[in-house]
Every structure is written in structure tokens, then in C-alpha cells.
Automatic annotation (TrEMBL):
SUPFAM superfamilies: Cystine-knot cytokines (SSF57501). It is found in: Secreted. Belongs to the IL-17 family. This is Interleukin 17D. Coiled coil: none annotated. One of its GO terms (cellular component) is extracellular region.
Amino acid sequence: ILINLSLLPSRISYDPTRYPKYIPEAYCLCKGCLMGILGEESLHFRSTPVYMPTVILRRTPACAGGRYVYTEDYITIPVGCTCIPEQEKEAESVNSSIDKQEVKLLVSQNKPSSE
């Protein structure tokens, strides 16, 4: 799946002790995913961020030769969104109630009659 990152909404993260100071971070607009020919939102899928590890430089309190000293730091930034299937909680609850009914029937059938 190709995603045009220039079309994703983003926020700008700012940290004066980091290089780069400004980093765009993508975020998902929808709870579900846009599906089908007309692009309707489907709640059978969940829109979730995609993260990318990135190296930045973090300014330390140290100073050398009148300049700041930086160390490498690894952060993850959201760069896009993808769709993952939503868990079928309703189907699980229906199945579990059916299973309970089947167990009750089996137990009642195996009970000795008191005649």
C-alpha cells in the first residue's frame, strides 16, 4: 500500500534541546478506516499510527570550545496511518453464550432422572 505522506495531517513537535528542533508528526484523522469505492468510514477496521525510528541529536549541559555538545538519541515518530482489523468482540460474546447454552443442555441431558 502506498501512502502519500504529504497529504497526511501533521503536528509539529518542538524541542529546543534537540536537533532538528522541529519534527513533523503524522496523526490519524479517523477512528475507523476509509474503505470501498466511495471511501466510507468502516469501523470494522481501526486506524492506527505507523512509527519510524529516527536518530536525533540531543543537546547536553556540557560545552566544548564555546559550543554545545550533542549526543545521539533514538526516538520513534509517527509517520503515517494504517488499517488493522478490529477485534470481533460481539462475535466472541455470542459464541461464548452459545457454548454456555450447549454445556447446560449436555449437563441436563446427563443428569439421572428422579422417577
